[in-house]
Design brief:
- About 45% of the residues lie in helices and about 10% in strands.
- By secondary structure, the chain is α+β, with helices and mostly antiparallel strands.
- It has a four-stranded antiparallel sheet with strand order 2-3-1-4.
- Helix 4 packs antiparallel against helix 5.
């Protein structure tokens, strides 16, 4: 029942092409970030494309080594910030020049100078909302379950281990070959992980 609920919600690791996968993939355990990067580059050169790296801190160069595209979050934030700016200008112009005209001491009905703080604040507000909500969406949060947690040493990813997972969704995936491959790359512990 829980499996079907997760599958209906579309959570990762439960449905691949409409079928429930048997394995998540093979995970290798490396001692240093340099070993992890070397293993990723070797795996990419060998033709593996569906991989994920886990580490206790950000490792410079992992995204490029994995072939991950640049995050679209910056563009999302920029669009929402500019939308906030446009809304602020339109709101103040409409209020002062169209809807509620007040002529005070010969001042114009709409002026940019007194509008700057509102334009700044609304731009920052919408950009901040976009950053937080966009981050949650792009990271698929909240994710209540991931097959990675079936790995016997998954706690090491938040402590002192550097892990590389070659996922079963990879077109070249063969469990025995991937285990041997990760062992040859210097993995200290390699394990086939169930989905």
């Amino acid at each position: 029942m829980v499996t079907s609920l997760f599958a209906k919600l579309g959570l990762p690791g439960y449905e691949v092409n409409g079928k429930q996968p048997k394995h998540f993939g093979v995970i290798g355990d490396f001692d240093t970030p340099e070993d992890l990067l070397r293993a990723i580059r070797t795996a990419r050169a060998a033709g593996y494309t569906k991989m994920e790296a886990y580490s206790p801190f950000p490792v410079h160069g992992v995204d490029e080594a994995l072939g991950e595209p640049r995050s679209p979050l910056g563009k999302i934030v920029m669009v929402c910030g500019l939308t906030g700016l446009a809304l602020a200008v339109a709101l103040q112009w409409w209020t002062g020049a169209v809807d509620y005209k007040l002529v005070i001491a010969g001042k114009p009905l709409f002026a940019v100078e007194p509008s700057v703080p509102i334009m700044f604040e609304l731009s920052v507000l919408l950009a901040a909302f976009a950053a937080v909500l966009g981050m949650f969406h792009l990271n698929r949060l909240p994710t209540y379950y991931h097959s990675f947690f079936n790995y016997s040493r998954s706690a090491g990813a938040s402590n002192d281990r550097f892990l590389l997972a070659v996922e079963a969704a990879d077109p070249r995936f063969n469990a025995d070959q991937v285990k041997n491959f990760l062992d040859s790359c210097g993995s200290r512990h390699t394990e086939l992980v169930e989905a």
